[in-house]
Amino acid sequence: MVREKETRLVQTKDAKVQVEDGISLEVKDAHLRLTEARDKIDVAKLAIEQAEENFRINQERFKEQVATATDVLDAQTLLTQARTNYYNALSDYNIARAKLERAMGVITY
User: Fold this and answer.
1) For the chain, domain boundaries
2) Spatial CA neighbour of 88 closest among 41, 22, 52, 46
């Protein structure tokens, strides 16, 4: 009877350690994903700036008749893709933040 209770106590302690390790891993993983998502936002902002400049240059070249309408459309497509990537990065960031809050047990409504 005593050995059985000691065995259960050891099993319970082991289970507690496993749960704590799992929570710790989940929080660390969520924090890493949040950091990565934040970095993607910065990269996406830079890509938008570059795409806007490329679009502006192609418009000016088209006005001077040294670029085709296709060049302008391609530049506009790149700008649209850069903006889409930015909004996807924002979405990923918000999801990562929510997962981190969940892992930490923070409830926000």
Assistant:
1) 12-104
2) 41
Identify residue 11 by its one-letter amino acid code.
Q
- Could you give the CA distance from residue 83 to residue 33 in angstroms, rounded to a whole number? 21
Identify the burial level of 96 via C-beta atoms within 10 angstroms of its C-beta, where 0-12 means exposed, 13-18 middle and 19 or more buried.
Answer: buried
| Predicted confidence (pLDDT) per residue in 59-82, tens digit | 999 999 999 999 999 999 999 999
82 Ramachandran zone, left/alpha/beta (phi>0; psi -120 to 50): alpha
Number of alpha helices (DSSP H) and beta strands (DSSP E) in the chain: 2, 0
Considering only CA atoms, which of 21, 30, 6 is closest in space to residue 101? 30
Output the pTM of the full model: 0.78
Count Cβ atoms within 10 A of the Cβ of residue 102 and give its class: 0-12 exposed, 13-18 middle, 19 or more buried.
middle
Query: For tokens 């990565």, what's the residue?
Result: 36
Q: For tokens 């850069």, what's the residue?
A: 82
